[in-house]
Design goal:
With 761 residues, this protein is α/β, with parallel strands linked by helices. Helices cover 57% and strands 10% of the residues. It has 5 domains: 1-80, no CATH class; 81-325, Serine Threonine Protein Phosphatase 5, Tetratricopeptide repeat; 381-530, Creatine Amidinohydrolase, Chain A, domain 1 (3-Layer(aba) Sandwich); 539-730, Rossmann fold, CATH 3.40.50.1460; 733-761.
Length: 761
């Protein structure tokens, strides 16, 4: 009897948590302003899912998805959304809400085509729900998420947010939806013309915006009656943006300070990114005041604000470590370091003091390297910075080259470059003030590559000149004066997939694409950062053999490469080679080797993994590369799009080229678009012909491009190849020595045969 009672007591204890929390589910606690309690309960539920009811578990997934969206942890947000959807018995309304939330996720990652796709799926699912499920909370959330996601799609309609507000039946949802309505309206306030603000229609929109933020603030205060909150901070932040759009930067700063004060007592890591974001916006407002008044006090105010935000930013990064390099999102637009580059650039212009070049260099290199060095912190020491700048200058003097280290800032959009030549280092804004809007249009390089690939000569000239004017015009005149023809480009923004060879120095139709292209004046090579440039230039490699990875494809998905056989015969004739077998990829990851890959690769700007294809079932992925130290090895990756990769928010890329360089490879040759099998074989054959003459690898690639350009081959053929890293040399096989070696062996065999015959006699 005692055992029976004990068993019943244990069962009772197991069910107590479900009973106790059934009325205070994490999502409901979150909406009631008790997010801390919600997180504690959510962690308990996730840790011991088996003792909780399905309702609690699903509600926890729902809460964690919403919470991570607020924290801008978009990947985690999507993960919990998928768990919630896959483990729930979904109605058509649940499906509609799920697709609307996924559409909102893709909006956060600026994937417009995907956003449109999921908006369509959400609307279709919601039509199937009509008159079936009248859950007002789900309907309110559906309209809100869809309204927010639809801001950049054909479904944009303010009635969606109106409906979200109408169906909201708690203060949290009303706050959230009024804030989203304000955000929605703010998109239409971003007009530069002061004259436009005299329009009655625009002023009415502004009044509606003010009404929305006031309502949002009032409902937030009902949730937090005794203090300001994170919710208040997000309202004041969007309010500040609208005031800046209106041209009232002073009022914009007032709202920003209200936002900062609302977060004053918050010590949680989750809010550190929001605090950094608010400080970033405050700096932007001060920049606008500086450009209006030319008073340096606003630049100093920006510097003070940004430096104060760094500890919060670093604490935010500390909390992000568990995401790892594969999913780390550096939130470039709110990173305080990138706006400090603007501060020191403006001070450099005003004071002509080179110390500000060094400060800019520190932050530029920190941002570029911190994307790949995981938890390491770059040194801001003046001694270290000066040493690096001096090292780059010595490399330029030794090789008579220039290094152009590009950097793009946001709010304001500026394309800056630290240019180092043998005799000087200077910092310039490549684009003029009037062209800053063009800097934000990163799509130019993508469209330019598509025009090259299609051999659309008219648009190659047109867009190629726009890019030349934006990136290189000012630098071109400086290099001409110094008679420098070799240039190392360290890209920024979307220019990592841009071949400077084909930028057009004029648009005159009388001149051919090749005559106008910068390749006729310069040899361009590339690096992923100045630090990597310094490291790879310490040793110039000389290889005695080529390690060949040439998979033999035999499926419809990956067709055989017909032209590689003749090419391989040519390579084997001139150079010593070792074949890498598909199933021994460890040989691909060796140090101090020259590796040539000829085959299929899959890479694009949306995928989180780029792959070298070995067969239908095996590949080498970009993330796998980062697990190896490839010091001293050089790679020629002759596969389609091997230099393309996904951008995480700004310019971090997971392309095969970048990952190989970031794993300490000496050099990598990658490609910018799809390659034709026959043309690629022809290109490589000529490249190795030049290598056999004893010249450096970058010179051989450059001469190969010139050869095909001079022989009127399409730019799509020779313009696909880009060279990253330092030079290497390749020893040619001694054909005569091999010949005499074979003669001696043959003679020996003949003598041996005669001796055997003689013995038999």
């Amino acid at each position: 009897m005692r055992n029976t009672n004990l068993s019943l007591f244990i069962v009772f204890l197991l069910f107590v948590p479900c009973f106790s929390f059934s009325q205070i589910l994490p999502l409901n606690l979150h909406w009631a302003g008790k997010t801390d309690s919600a997180i504690i309960i959510a962690n308990k539920i996730i840790k011991n899912k088996l003792i909780w009811s399905k309702k609690e578990v699903l509600n926890t997934y729902d809460f964690l998805a919403e919470y991570n969206l607020e924290c801008s942890h978009f990947n985690t947000n999507l993960s919990y959304l998928q768990k919630h959807f896959s483990e729930n018995k979904n109605t058509s309304l649940d499906s509609a809400l799920f697709y609307a939330r996924v559409a909102n996720y893709t909006l956060c990652y600026v994937l417009h085509d995907s956003t449109d796709f999921y908006c369509t799926k959400a609307i279709t699912a919601f039509k199937n729900n009509k008159f079936k499920n009248k859950d007002s909370v789900k309907i309110a959330r559906y309209y809100s998420y869809l309204g927010n996601a639809a801001r950049n799609t054909k479904y944009r309609n303010s009635l969606l947010i109106d409906s979200a507000i109408a169906y909201s039946n708690n203060n949290y949802l009303k706050t959230l939806h009024y804030r989203r309505y304000a955000t929605y309206i703010s998109d239409t306030l971003n007009l530069e013309s002061k004259l436009a603000w005299q329009s009655k229609a625009l002023l009415n929109r502004y009044k509606k915006f003010i009404n929305c933020v006031n309502n949002a603030e009032n409902f937030a205060t009902k949730i937090y009656p005794n203090k300001k909150s994170y919710l208040h901070a997000t309202i004041y932040k969007i309010w500040s943006l609208a005031e800046r759009y209106k041209g009232d930067e002073e009022q914009s700063i007032v709202q920003i300070k209200r936002a900062k004060n609302a977060l004053e007592d918050t010590k949680k890591i989750v809010y550190y990114a929001e605090y950094s974001s608010i400080c970033s916006w405050e700096a932007s407002s001060n920049f606008y005041l500086f450009y209006k008044t030319h008073n340096l006090k606003y630049i100093y105010e920006s510097e003070k604000t940004l430096l104060k935000s760094i500890p919060a930013w670093e604490k935010y990064l500390e909390g992000e470590k568990q995401n790892g390099i594969k999913t780390f999102d550096d939130k470039y637009s709110i990173n305080p370091y990138q706006k400090l580059v603007v501060v020191y650039y403006e001070l450099y212009k005003a004071k002509k003091d080179n110390i500000y070049i060094a400060k800019c260099y520190s932050f530029i290199e920190f941002i570029k390297n911190n994307r790949t060095l995981k938890d390491e912190r770059y040194s801001f020491s003046p001694t270290y910075t000066k040493q690096n700048l001096d090292t780059i200058s010595k490399i330029c003097t030794k090789k008579n080259i220039a290094v152009v280290n590009y950097f793009i800032t946001i709010e304001p959009f500026m394309l800056l470059a630290i240019v180092t030549s043998p005799d000087t280092t200077f910092l310039i804004e490549c684009s003029s003030l009037s062209k800053r809007n063009i800097v934000s249009q990163f799509y130019y390089s993508d469209s330019f590559n598509s025009f090259i690939f299609k051999n659309d000569r008219e648009n190659i000239k047109k867009v190629g000149y726009l890019l030349y004017d934006l990136y290189f015009l000012k630098i071109d005149s400086i290099l001409k004066q110094r008679k420098i023809s070799d240039v190392v480009i360290i890209p920024a923004g979307n220019s990592y997939n841009l071949n400077f060879d084909l930028l057009q120095a004029d648009t005159l139709p009388a001149k051919s694409i090749f005559q106008s292209a910068l390749i006729s004046r310069y040899k361009f090579t590339y690096s992923t950062s100045a630090d990597i440039l310094i490291n790879v230039n310490k040793i110039i490699k000389k290889y005695d053999a080529i390690n060949l990875l040439v998979p033999m494809y035999n499926s419809k998905k990956y067709v055989p490469l017909q032209s590689s056989k003749k090419l391989l015969n040519e390579i084997n004739y001139n150079f010593s080679t070792t074949k890498i077998e598909n199933n021994t990829t460890s040989e691909f990851f060796q140090k101090d080797k020259l590796i040539q890959f000829i085959g299929h690769s899959e890479a694009n700007a949306l995928s989180s993994e780029q792959q070298i294809i070995l067969s239908d079932t095996s590949n080498i992925s970009s993330s796998t590369i980062l697990k190896h130290d490839l010091a001293g090895s050089s790679y020629l990756i002759n596969g389609c799009n091997s230099n393309l990769g996904k951008q995480e928010q700004y310019s971090k890329t997971n392309s095969l080229t970048y990952q190989l360089m970031n794993s300490h490879a000496s050099s990598v040759t990658g490609t910018l678009w799809n390659l034709d099998d026959k043309e690629n074989a022809e290109f490589l054959e000529k490249f190795y012909e030049f290598m056999s003459t004893g010249i450096s690898s970058s010179d051989a690639l450059y001469k190969t491009k010139l050869y095909f350009a001079n022989n009127n081959y399409s730019p799509s053929m020779w313009g696909a190849y880009v060279y990253y890293g330092s030079d290497f040399y390749l020893s040619k096989k001694n054909v005569m020595a091999t010949y005499w070696y074979l003669v001696i062996i043959a003679a020996g065999l003949i003598v041996f045969a005669f001796m055997m015959v003689y013995k038999k006699r």
